[in-house]
C-alpha cells in the first residue's frame, strides 16, 4: 500500500500569514533611553553680567496723563452716543458739549464752577440703616460725577415693603418756586431682603455761580408716599467759583425752617 505525503510547506506559510506582525518603531521617534556609550553634552550656565549685559531691566512709569498727538484721532468719526448724553438735566435736556473723555484728548478743559454739598452724606453715618427703617426711604449718597458738565449721580435706599415701588428725585433751583421730578432706576441685585437701592443721574450744567440746587426723595409703594428731605433741610448743593480755596458759608433757604411736614415747601 502506497502512502502519499502531503506537502507541509504550504501550511507553514499560512500560519505565518495569520500570525500578527510586530510593529516597528518609526525611525523619526526618539527613544526614551540613551544607548550606552553615547557621548554626553555638557551644559553650561553663563550670567548676563559676564557678557557685559545688565542683570535686570528697569522701566520707569510716570504717574501722569499721556500726551496723545492730534494725528492719532483726527480721522476718527465718533458716534452721537459718545458726544452727547441723554440723561435728564435741570431743563429736561442734556448738555450738547463734547464728552469730557474726548475733550481730554485735546486741550484740557478746566471747569470754572463747582458744586459743593451742604450736607453730610447719609450713607456714611453709622445709623444709616436705622434711618431707612424709620423713614422708609433715605438718600444714601450723591456725588459730582463730572465736574465739567456738573453731573450728579446718587443712590437711594428704600424699605422693601412690596415688589411694586417707585422712587423720584424732586429738585429745584429757585427755592421751590418751581421744581421737577426725576425717576430713579432700580439697581439690579441690590435687594438684601430688607431694602432696595435706586440710582439717578442729574445734569446741572445750567447752574450759575451763586445758584443753589435743592433735592428731596419721594418713595411710592402700596398707594402710600414717603419722603426724605434731610429732616426738613433738603439736600442742597451750592454753586461756587472754582478759584475759591477758602471756606464757604452755606446759603440758607429763605423762609424755610426744619419741619416734619415739609411738602408745602414745594409750592
Give me some keywords for this one.
elongated; Immunoglobulin-like; 4 helices; 6-stranded antiparallel beta sheet; mainly beta; 4-stranded antiparallel beta sheet; disordered C terminus
Structure at a glance:
The chain has 267 residues and is mainly beta. Helix content is 10%, strand content 26%. The protein has four helices and ten strands; from the N terminus they run αααβαβββββββββ.
Question: What top-tier CATH class of the domain at 113-248 fits best?
Answer: Mainly Beta
Kindly state the number of beta strands. Answer: 10
The largest sheet, given as strand count, sense and whether it forms a barrel, is: 6 strands, antiparallel
| Span between termini | 141 Å
Helix content, binned percent: under 10%
CATH superfamily descriptor of the domain at 113-248 = Carbohydrate binding type-21 domain
- The string of secondary-structure elements, in order, is HHHEHEEEEEEEEE
Instruction: Give me the Rg, rounded.
Output: 39 Å
Q: What name does the CATH topology of the domain at 113-248 carry?
A: Immunoglobulin-like
The multimeric state of the shown protein is single chain
Which stretches are poorly predicted, pLDDT < 50 over at least 5 residues? 78-87, 96-106, 245-267
Arithmetic mean pLDDT = 73
Structural class: mainly beta
**Helix segment tally:** 4
CATH architecture of the domain at 113-248: Sandwich
**Strand portion, in percent?**
25-35%
Pfam family, one: CBM_21
Region (Disordered): 1-44
Biased composition (Acidic residues): 1-17
InterPro entries: CBM21_dom (IPR005036), CBM21_dom_sf (IPR038175), PP1_regulatory_subunit_3 (IPR050782)
Amino acid at each position: 500500500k502506497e502512502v502519499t505525503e502531503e506537502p507541509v510547506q504550504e501550511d507553514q506559510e499560512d500560519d505565518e500569514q495569520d500570525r500578527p506582525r510586530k510593529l516597528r518603531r518609526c525611525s523619526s521617534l526618539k527613544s526614551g533611553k540613551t544607548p550606552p556609550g553615547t557621548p554626553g553634552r555638557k551644559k553650561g550656565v553663563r550670567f548676563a553680567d559676564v557678557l557685559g549685559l545688565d542683570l535686570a531691566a528697569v522701566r520707569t512709569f510716570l504717574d501722569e496723563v499721556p500726551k496723545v498727538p492730534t494725528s492719532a484721532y483726527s480721522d476718527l468719526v465718533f458716534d452721537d452716543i459718545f458726544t452727547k448724553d441723554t440723561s435728564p438735566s435741570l431743563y429736561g435736556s442734556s448738555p450738547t458739549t463734547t464728552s469730557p473723555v474726548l475733550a481730554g484728548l485735546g486741550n484740557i478743559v478746566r471747569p470754572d464752577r463747582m458744586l459743593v454739598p451742604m450736607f453730610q452724606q447719609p450713607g456714611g453715618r453709622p445709623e444709616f440703616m436705622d434711618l431707612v427703617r424709620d423713614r422708609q426711604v433715605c438718600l444714601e449718597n450723591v456725588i459730582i460725577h463730572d465736574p465739567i458738565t456738573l453731573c450728579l449721580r446718587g443712590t437711594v435706599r428704600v424699605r422693601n415693603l412690596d415688589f411694586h415701588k417707585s422712587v423720584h428725585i424732586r429738585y429745584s433751583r429757585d427755592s421751590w418756586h418751581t421744581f421737577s421730578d426725576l425717576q430713579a432706576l432700580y439697581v439690579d441685585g441690590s435687594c438684601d431682603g430688607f431694602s432696595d437701592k435706586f440710582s439717578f443721574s442729574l445734569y446741572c450744567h445750567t447752574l450759575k455761580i451763586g445758584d443753589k440746587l435743592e433735592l428731596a426723595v419721594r418713595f411710592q409703594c402700596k398707594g402710600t408716599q414717603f419722603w426724605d428731605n434731610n429732616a426738613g433741610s433738603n439736600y442742597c448743593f451750592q454753586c461756587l467759583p472754582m478759584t475759591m480755596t477758602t471756606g464757604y458759608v452755606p446759603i440758607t433757604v429763605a423762609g424755610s425752617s426744619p419741619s416734619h411736614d415739609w411738602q408745602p415747601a414745594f409750592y
